[in-house]
Amino acid sequence: MKHIASFSGGKDSTAMVLRMIAKDMPLDDIVFFDTGWEFPQMYDHLDKFEKYIGRPITRLKPRISFEHWMLHREIVANNGPMKGKVHRIGNGWPSPSRRWCTRQKVNTIERYIPKDAARYIGIAADEATRVGSYSRYPLIEWDMAESDCLKYCYDRGFDWGGLYKYFKRVSCFCCPLQRLGELRNLRHHFPELWTKMLAWEDGMERPWRGFKGYTTVHDLEKRFAAEDRQMELFEDINMKGTK
């Protein structure tokens, strides 16, 4: 039987693999799915992690890039007057009800991992409601909460270039399921990635609703820009009041 760890690269899966190795648990493979939408700091983390543990990470990629799925894929209608014909181009942004990116990720990993393998998944003890019935969850067995996992990684020199200062999750930087505050942090601290999201949206045939409470990234840009102007006004008033 193969023993395989699903590795997102975040704090939980990193802590899980580190502790599995420290406990000399069987581990034949460490599998990471590269969406192409990772933070640059995540790729640095993967390289650093491989050197630390002295073994390679298997890096899987989608057969067709996520950018192609989102912007260029021809969508054929399954029914209606356009049945069998291309009725739009591109999937658009993922959303809670249209998580096409997650489906591609899961399908790719499932094709790679043997059905009879022992699979280890890094779900922390305080997120136990997310578990399934076909895998093993060492962090829950060890009663390690998310905060425990982050400290375990920090203590061993892994800090993801400071990403966890701004985000609860450090997977896809453009994920529409992020909290509003995290999207605000993305725009403020990683403007080059935010600019890329705006450019992607400009290239969409029609932007699909995905970001909570807002139709498009451009709507969020307008809101955040207005907040910035308001903050600048308050600061200017306060400066004048202290003179």
Strand content: 5-15%
Q: Which second-level CATH architecture applies? A: 3-Layer(aba) Sandwich
Shape: flat
Work out the count of structural domains.
1
How would you describe the overall organization of this protein?
- The chain is of the alpha/beta class and 243 residues long.
- The protein has one domain: Rossmann fold (3-Layer(aba) Sandwich), CATH 3.40.50.
- 43% of the residues lie in helices and 9% in strands.
- The chain is built from nine helices and six strands, in the order βαβαβαββαβααααα.
- Helix 2 links the parallel strand 2 and strand 3.
- Helix 1 packs across helix 6 and helix 7 crosses helix 8.
- The mean pLDDT is 91.
Structure in a nutshell:
By secondary structure, the protein is an alpha/beta fold.
Key terms:
4-stranded parallel β-sheet; Rossmann fold; alpha/beta; single chain; flat; 6 strands; 243 residues
Please give the structural blueprint.
Elements (H helix, E strand, L loop, with lengths): L2 E4 L4 H12 L6 E5 L6 H14 L4 E3 L5 H6 L2 E3 L9 E4 L10 H13 L5 E4 L16 H4 L4 H9 L25 H10 L1 H12 L14 H25 L2
Parallel strand pairs: 1-2, 1-6, 2-3
Antiparallel strand pairs: 4-5
